[in-house]
Write a sequence for this structure.
């Protein structure tokens, strides 16, 4: 049996076992990476761990630690209460406010995971305090990040437009941006209507320990220091493009030193189960890449006839693979594959590029991606296993319908 089939079979087994049994799928992924890497691919330990997501590990540890510190000194509750006052008590507007903020941040050049990392902890606390669906809140923040991700000055937009500029294709950057923004705005509206009254974590007005939320008559000096640290995190990450995980760890350590008695257990707020889950799966994805599984799937789809069908298969392929792998890496790989198809067919170039870009990024709600992992790790008052299944279910719905809708909206009309 070829390494490609072995790696795909192992992935299927992991999903079945990890979904049906209370075992962290990250553990299974690490074991599978070692067994397949050594037995089927002949890799050594260093090669196996080349796929370990060091940056993602530091980001999740840093962000969840910092907001654990901020939770314990009351700053998160303070932000929540003032956030609600900002919309004059209209709590239903908060997800849309966070969607808009995320879109603006990414449209002006913030890397999507950085924007999500800044907004998700606050959104999850608001969702818990006011009895809103944490799944809805988290997914709308991610959609907001994707909505602005393909602006002409955004990271993903610059990447895709730069690759297109080196070909004979003509795709206006603003078309790609508007297509992504419109699609994600529509997806957010559907998510809002579908989930706003479901999966609520608990009664409104309770904190993470089940008690009543505190009233805020003033801001203590420790809370002012925490707000300053959060502001510094934003400036460092967005203005100077510093690694957000290291910044968050530094800020959290500084704050902990000012209140050692109350912050002694802040490290317990780090979502270790999520880190294990994501790190294991991303490491296994590295094995899939070394086995040639991802390249084989993409090349097989591109080698089929009927351009319209191939375009659909490419959208579906990038959605499935990007749910487990880096969207940036998938975009970098798929655009060159799509160019020959566009040059040899009558398909609309802007439509297919937009459909591929959207299909690649909208699945970043997966718990195995940075964005989905941040939602999973910051959810308050939920059963972790149950919430994990909800995120997986939402991801499956996006993978199942998202590429088909993107293909139907942006590719199909140009071919008729």
């Amino acid at each position: 049996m070829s390494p490609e089939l072995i790696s795909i079979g192992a992935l299927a087994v992991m999903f079945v076992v990890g979904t049906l049994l209370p075992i962290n799928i990250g553990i299974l992924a690490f074991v599978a990476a070692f067994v397949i890497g050594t037995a089927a691919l002949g890799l050594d330990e260093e090669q196996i761990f080349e796929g370990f997501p060091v940056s993602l590990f530091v980001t999740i540890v840093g962000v969840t630690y910092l907001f654990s510190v901020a939770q314990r000194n009351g700053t998160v509750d303070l932000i929540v209460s003032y956030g609600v006052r900002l919309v004059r008590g209209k709590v239903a507007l908060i997800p849309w406010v966070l969607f808009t903020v995320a879109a603006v941040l990414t449209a002006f050049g913030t890397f999507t995971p950085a924007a999500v990392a800044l907004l998700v902890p606050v959104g999850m606390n608001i969702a818990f305090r006011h009895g809103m669906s944490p799944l809805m809140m988290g997914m709308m923040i991610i959609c907001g990040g994707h909505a602005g991700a393909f602006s002409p000055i955004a990271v993903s937009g610059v990447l895709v437009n730069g690759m297109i500029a080196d070909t004979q294709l003509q795709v206006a950057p603003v078309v790609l941006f508007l297509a992504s923004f419109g699609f994600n705005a529509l997806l957010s509206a559907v998510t809002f209507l579908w989930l706003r009254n479901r999966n609520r974590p608990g009664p409104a007005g309770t904190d993470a320990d089940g008690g009543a939320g505190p009233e805020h008559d003033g801001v203590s000096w420790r809370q002012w220091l925490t707000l300053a640290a959060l502001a510094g995190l934003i400036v460092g990450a967005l203005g100077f493009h510093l690694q957000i995980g290291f910044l968050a760890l530094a800020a959290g350590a500084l704050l902990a030193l000012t209140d050692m008695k109350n912050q002694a257990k802040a490290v317990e707020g780090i979502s270790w189960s999520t880190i294990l889950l994501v790190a294991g799966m991303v490491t296994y994805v590295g094995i899939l890449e070394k086995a040639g599984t991802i390249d084989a799937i993409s090349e097989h789809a591109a080698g089929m006839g009927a351009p319209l069908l191939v375009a659909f298969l490419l959208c579906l392929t990038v959605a499935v693979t990007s749910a487990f792998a880096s969207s940036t890496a998938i975009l970098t790989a798929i655009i060159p594959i799509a160019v020959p198809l566009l040059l040899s067919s009558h398909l609309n170039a802007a439509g297919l590029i937009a459909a591929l870009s959207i299909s690649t990024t909208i699945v970043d709600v997966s718990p195995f991606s940075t964005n989905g992992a941040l939602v999973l790790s910051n959810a308050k008052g939920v059963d972790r296993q149950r919430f994990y299944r909800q995120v997986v279910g939402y991801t499956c719905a996006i993978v199942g319908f998202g590429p088909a809708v993107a293909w139907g909206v942006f590719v199909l009309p140009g071919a008729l």
In short: Confidence is low (pLDDT under 50) at residues 202-215. DSSP finds 20 helices and no strands in the chain. The first helix runs from residue 3 to 20. The radius of gyration is 22 Å.
